[in-house]
Amino acid sequence: MVVSLLEMLRSGGYILYARHGQANVGIDQPTVNFYDCATQRNLSEIGRNQAIYYGRIFRALQIPISFPVLTSPYCRTIETGALAFGSQNIQVDPFLMEIQNLNGNLSDPEKSRILNNLQSFLEVEPPNGTNRVIVAHSFPKGVGLGSIPYMGTVIVKPKGPGNGYEVIGRLSFSDFYKLATTK
């Protein structure tokens, strides 16, 4: 199955939603300042290495990507995207910070609003022959795309605006690494 998944990714048409690299340096302050990384959790050295290798793996596997790669405004997602794909190839999308908010104490209407926006976001097909990469956050278990390990990737097939999306598969960082070293 993994080999056929690789061929599908090489053909394009998917959204690759990745969680940022390992981030266990610092803590998210109650009032995060997106321009001050000292107010939030940041990538560890392991997380930085994961991000670098993640980008190398995409290039080694010849998976076509449409740029820019979208990230949330948190320093850990921006740094992950920049290390993997180059800082000139990333774009911050403020909506993606709302994924992190799902882990907090939100009202049901607020959770529904975020999940509805996520659905609309994941329905949009990337440019022909490419894949869109998003670097953001994990979800609470059973919500949205579910729990995602550091540098794990959920492969989503958009069905077009108003038509939903389908989760095709999930790859951990080690799954991607194995693909690159056995191709």
UniProtKB/TrEMBL annotation:
Matching SUPFAM superfamilies: Phosphoglycerate mutase-like
Protein name, as recorded: Histidine phosphatase family protein
Organism (species): Lysinibacillus composti
Lineage of source species: Bacteria, Bacillati, Bacillota, Bacilli, Bacillales
